Amino acid sequence: MNLIKLTVLTACFCLILGCSSDSNNEPDIQIEELTHVAHEVLQFEFIPDTGNNTRLLRYQIKFSNPNNVAVNGYYRVTLNTDGLIATTFTNVNGQCGNIAANSDCITTFEAEDSLELANVNSITLVGVEYVIVSE
Questions:
Q1: What is the pLDDT of residues 86-123, one digit of tens each?
Q2: Which domain holds residue 122?
Q3: What share of the chain is helix, strand, coil (3-state, %, to 5)?
Q4: Greatest Cα pair distance in the chain
Q5: Is the pLDDT of residue 125 over 80?
Q6: Can the keyword Signal be found in this entry's annotation (predicted)?
């Protein structure tokens, strides 16, 4: 009787361990590469003297997420201020830090400063970029 049990157990053991998994039956998981978030400058205005002893900088930028998933990220705006190039960053908790799938987000900036702070003749927009951190 023990010999029969041993034979049956050995056969079952060989069948269980001997079956190989067929990886062709497993579904292929496609990882979709994210498309860059596009941007459109809706408004950019620099007024060197508003008439109130101040200067004004304002801009409005629309970011468009063409992906089928929401994205988290931040944007960079590069400005040329009288020949000095500087880039400002936001963070993922700031405006447009999360953009829903196939959606847009508009960020707005407006700053009015006293002319006594510094003499600034021109500010021009050099570039805008949205950096995806995660989906």
A1: 999 988 788 999 999 999 999 999 999 999 988 899 99
A2: 38-134
A3: 15, 45, 40
A4: 107
A5: yes
A6: yes
Give the integer Cα–Cα distance in Å for 116 and 49.
Answer: 11
Place of tokens 């400063």: 113
Tokens of 119: 């003499």
Contact 65, 103 (CB under 8 A): yes
In a domain, 10, yes or no: no
Is residue 23 a part of any domain in this protein? no
Q: In total, how many domains does the chain have?
A: 1
First to last CA, the chain: 62
CATH value at residue 66: 2.60.40.1470
For residue 135, what pLDDT band results from cuts at 50, 70 and 90?
A: low
